[in-house]
Amino acid sequence: MTNSLRPQGHNRAPLPPAQSSADGVPSPRSPQNQKAQANSRPASSGAKQRDAFFDNAKYLAIVLVAIGHAWEPIKGDSRILEAVYTVVYTFHMPAFIIISGFFSRSFDASPSRLKRLITGVAVPYIVFETAYPLFKRWIDEDPSQEISLLDPWYLTWFLCALFIWRMTTPIWKMVRWPLPLALGLAMAATVTPEIGDDLDLQRVLQFLPYFVLGLCMKPEHFHMVRTRTVRLLSVPVGAVALAFGWWAVPRMNTAWFYHRDAAQELGAPWWSGPVMVLAMFGCSLLLTACFFAWVPRRHMWFTALGAGTLYGYLLHGFFVKAGDYQGWFEAAWLHRPLGEIFVTVCAAVGVTLLCTKPVQRVFRFAMEPRMEWAFKRDAAELAREREKRDGAAAREKVNA
């Protein structure tokens, strides 16, 4: 264990304030003092420093998401793989959503932030909600596959949910008890099958408490779980979770971990829905804390990839679905231990490549479109530009 992972007591550097990115997912930046930040780099540089911990956490979480999707077609009757799959699904999306909530704290529905929300979340949702059904029509030769912006397909549910969560952020910042209220809505959703599939509202509501928790968190909460004691305790906690997952495989419906159905739709009594919301919220927080405890806080070889996690998230689905439609996962050797390891490595390497800068440059038109033509110019921005032009003209006049 490196010294950089050890807690630094009262001398450790604070985490950065919350900011939102252009791509609609958390974009951690540091240092806290913007004036010091401006003095520490050339005036011509528009790049902002990013906090390594959150970039590392985002990258590792998205790798687990891709691995989980790759495991789904091959886990079959493997009780061990099913147990690991269950444990991973308990915390990988909650961890990512908590970070999303933490970096949404500054969202105030101002024109600039609404513009970033539209270009970084709504537009990618429309693009990929159209692209995935077209892809299925082509590769699976399924002309009946419909395109509907009201029914999120496969991975696009997260963009739909993130848009709704961010738009409601001012409400959660205003109410007195945001987390209990969010939990209440999640519990109510699990007993309301009438919600249906429109906008995947079941997932929006059942994952809502994690986003609201992120909104409520402060930097010191992340410091609390990144201590040597928590890291050591997380080892037996993880072992117990894997053992419990192995025990629960034949006894529990895995669909609970997807948070997309009401209790009645899973063939369970209505009262089990609220109970499972609370139980899974507690288990998810415990394993998420263990995950955060082991996320490196220093710059690693993969730290820069944290800025491209939305690319990896949305693009890896095409490869997973192509393999599913074309029968790539049906080979018998993939369902043996060495085959499962091979699939795991391929998923990790594949999503890593999809987070790289070359891929970002190619697909930026869909993920981070500028769309200046679609928005009115902000009056304050126009005034600043006029002031800058007038100042430049005055200097030229003096020099002349």
TrEMBL record:
Q: Which UniProt keywords apply?
A: Membrane, Transmembrane, Transmembrane helix
Region annotated Disordered sits at 1-47
Keyword Endoplasmic reticulum found? no
Q: Which residues form a coiled coil?
A: none
Entry's transmembrane regions: 53-71, 83-104, 116-135, 147-165, 229-249, 269-294, 301-319, 339-356
Molecular functions per Gene Ontology? acyltransferase activity, transferring groups other than amino-acyl groups
For this protein, the record's InterPro entries field holds: Acyl_transf_3_dom, Nod_factor_acetyltransferase
> Locations of Polar residues compositional bias?
30-47
The Acyltransferase domain extends over 52-355
Key word Membrane present in the record? yes
What name does the UniProt record give this protein?
Answer: Acyltransferase 3 domain-containing protein
> Which source organism?
Streptomyces curacoi
